[in-house]
Design brief:
Blueprint: H1 3-9, H2 15-21, E1 26-32, H3 56-61, H4 63-72, E2 78-84, H5 91-95, H6 99-113, E3 121-127, H7 135-145, E4 149-154, H8 163-175, E5 180-187, H9 189-197, H10 200-208, E6 210-215, H11 230-243, H12 251-254, E7 272-275, H13 287-290, H14 298-301, H15 311-321, H16 337-341, H17 353-362
Parallel strand pairs: 1-2, 1-7, 2-3, 3-4, 4-5, 5-6
Helix pairs in contact: 9-11, 11-17
């Protein structure tokens, strides 16, 4: 039974159907090529030393699962495939391997074998922009890929760069500027606090590129220090609404009251796909749950029956905040349900922070 069929057999008042009404027709597919990385970001839940999946055959072989999913997804109107590491373009692995050839063959197979039927398919490479020696090779790769291929660049004000790495990053921003789709940051406590205080380079990136923020997913308890309290996240949301209004996450909140329609949920489950470094699909299409090293247990991953398709994370969220009767339901983009369920925000408020944000915006 696939994603679409499950909608038809659940009750109309279920949390599942509430979510499916808001699912995005743009299908996000996240492919973890491998986790090996030249950085060791303090907040990152990945195994930076793991080379699982990091070979020509393993990378090209991932095309099978991607193509199969696209060919069986009739609901999506477009596909956005995000290839992530680790770091796919660090000097060490690019200069001493045939990985760029593997990337090219992977994307060639997707373009030629997937039954897109005229639907757009964007191919996005997530990078920390640490490359130096391999810059000419990466630029050649991007030129050969064409207009459907872009970078999403990871930038975090805290926990990512030393002084030399930041200089390299800034150089690459300018060198690869024409290939950048957007900049992406993670809502750790430290990043939020830095932006609230004021960060000049964040402002520069925001002014020159599209920008997005992801909710933080911690790997285990050693990352507790990076988990923000809800009150801090709400303060950050208000800053975005006041000063950074084109940030992808905040746009749905800013649509005028009474505009009509239902804002899509940010969560891509129900029309999303994720794959781990071994080439195994992550059954719920939730890449975040792959990194929950301590809470990644069957209760969170039981999607093998109609009742538990979206698991208890959605149901618990909807029940806690009474989303069915909320006056902001149609306008609300919801949030990361798995992150909320597994403690990736410290609960220090009594009210849903999305509702508080809507009230703040509507009062202005």
């Amino acid at each position: 039974m696939d994603f679409i069929e499950i909608v038809d057999v659940t009750g109309k008042d279920s949390a599942t159907n509430l979510f499916f009404e808001k699912r995005n027709k743009s299908c996000e597919m996240i492919i973890i090529l491998f986790e090996y990385c030249n950085f060791a970001c303090t907040f990152c839940p990945q195994d930076h030393d793991s080379k699982v999946g990091m070979s020509y055959d393993n990378i090209v072989g991932k095309a099978d699962g991607i193509i199969n999913y696209i060919n069986n997804n009739k609901f999506a109107t477009e596909f956005v495939i995000r290839f992530i590491g680790g770091e796919p373009f660090n000097d060490e692995i690019i200069m001493n391997s045939n990985l760029l050839e593997a990337y090219s063959e992977l994307t060639r197979r997707i373009r030629t074998e997937a039954k897109l039927d005229g639907r757009p398919c964007d191919l996005i490479w997530i990078s920390n922009f640490s490359m130096k020696e391999c810059r000419p090779l990466v630029k050649k790769f991007m030129d050969e890929q064409g207009d459907d291929t872009e970078f999403v660049v990871s930038y975090d004000t805290k926990g990512r760069f030393n002084a030399a790495d930041l200089i390299t990053f800034k150089e690459n921003i300018e060198i690869f500027r024409p290939y950048i789709r957007n900049i992406n940051s993670v809502m750790t406590k430290q990043n939020i606090e830095a932006v609230l205080r004021g960060d000049e380079y964040f402002d520069y990136l925001y002014d020159n590129f599209d920008y997005s923020w992801d909710m933080y997913i911690k790997g285990n308890s050693k990352h507790d220090y990076a988990v923000p309290p809800e009150s801090l996240v709400l303060e950050f949301y208000k800053l975005l609404a006041d000063k950074y209004q084109t940030v992808e996450f905040i746009r749905p909140f800013l649509k005028p009251k009474g505009q009509g329609g239902v804002n899509n949920a940010l969560c891509s489950r129900g029309n999303g796909f994720a794959m781990d470094p071994t080439g195994t699909p992550i059954s719920e299409g939730c890449v975040g749950s792959h990194y929950l090293k301590e809470t990644n247990h069957p209760v969170l991953r039981n999607h093998n029956s109609e009742k538990n398709f979206l698991d208890k994370t959605v149901e618990n969220f909807v029940d806690k905040y009474n989303c069915h009767s909320c006056e902001f339901y149609q306008r609300c983009p919801m949030m990361c349900f798995v992150g909320k369920e597994t403690g990736n925000m410290i609960n220090d408020t009594d009210k849903c922070i999305n509702k508080s944000l809507f009230e703040y915006i509507d009062s202005k």
